[in-house]
Amino acid sequence: MRTARRPSSSAYDGLFSGLRAFIARRTQELTGLCLVAVAGAVAVALATWSVDDPSLNNATDLPVHNLLGWPGAIIADLLMQLLGLGAIAAVLPLALWGWRLMKSGELGRLQLRFALWVMGVGAATALASAMPATDRWPLPTGLGGVAGDAILTGAKAITGLSNGSASAVLGFLFAGIAILSLTAACGLSPNEERHHEEPEEEEAPRPVRRRQIADWDEAEEITHDEPGWGIVSLGALAHGVMSLRATARRWSEKRHAPAEDEDFEPAPQPRRASRDGAMRREPVLDAPLGRASRTAPAAAPAYEDEDDSYDDEPMAQPVPRAAIRPEPVSARVGPAPTAPKPGKRMAREAQPSLLDEEKYQLPQLSLLAEPKKSSAPLISAEALEQNANLLESTLEDFGVRGAITKVSPGPVVTL
């Protein structure tokens, strides 16, 4: 049976693996397309940049010459102010990364590529700042922008070169760093292309391996028979359904357990006897005697060995159990508690009257309005008795055996 389920498991897993591969491939292609689109938009904005366009640094009413409108003018102005001509070097790797994602869907060592890209852009801006600016350059900074001037100034301070030839020497140094860094970041080296083509050669024999696993005769020779993700998910779902079913069954058994005990077990009878004993002011110890007296008639046929037809009659005795319970149990229902009488000390220490009792005349009673009838419903003795029975059954459900000896109207329950 285990071997018979294995082909369906492999087919089920193959469906999910194929779907995951399809989604991952489309996501990589979409990411690459976004990178190419962003790189192209930035390139168009830089190509049509004009210093007279409105931007964050220039407030003017002149029309925008940038092809991308005022968003392109703002982005191009920020890049030219910060990176200068080095912004061109920053756009090229982004376009190549997007092209590689759309073509092969792989772009390994992303952190290293990003670090090399930042290093190459910084070196390119420093190289542009090392070149002499012409009269047509509209910005007050060098050709490398603010970042290029800062990097070049720091390099001159570290090396101690400050004359005219120092810029040329540092320019050649930054040119080499920019070329090597940007080339490695773009992945244009032969080793990178060889590493990129190797996985395609390894993935070629995969369909043959999948065919061998799906074969019925060779499936017995496979040592690992671990289920796939699809089978595991179906098993977890089935386990959850079975657990819910078992929980519902246990809850139903607990709910119907007290009713079965009342129908078939005579154990709760001492509690009824103790209730009757409480009404008659008799000790609780007499309850087992009452139970024995009730069970005595059931045990009487056991001594008659001559007739076997009476052997099964004691088992049917729990039926008249409802008649054993006394109906007039409303005697435990007491009246509502009355207000306590004032004591002698309270009357003695009460505040004296401020009026002259001999000359003062009380107002007529006709000035008083009739008392309003209470809207609260009156609780009858039957309702109080029913509430007591419900409370006893609820306590029995929680394993508490108790007898309510007296019931009075009020919110307080005392056992």
Automatic annotation (TrEMBL):
Which keywords label this protein? Answer: Cell cycle, Cell division, Cell membrane, Membrane, Transmembrane, Transmembrane helix
Which InterPro entries does this chain map to?
FtsK/SpoIIIE/SftA, FtsK_4TM, FtsK_alpha
Question: Looking at the UniProt record for this protein, which Gene Ontology cellular component terms does it annotate, in alphabetical order?
Answer: plasma membrane
Residue span, FtsK alpha domain: 362-414
One GO biological process this protein is involved in is: cell division
Q: Where is the composition biased (Acidic residues)?
A: 303-314
Could you tell me where the Basic and acidic residues compositional bias lies? Answer: 273-284
Question: Where do the segments described as Disordered lie?
Answer: 190-210, 252-356
**What is the protein name given in its UniProt record?**
Cell division protein FtsK
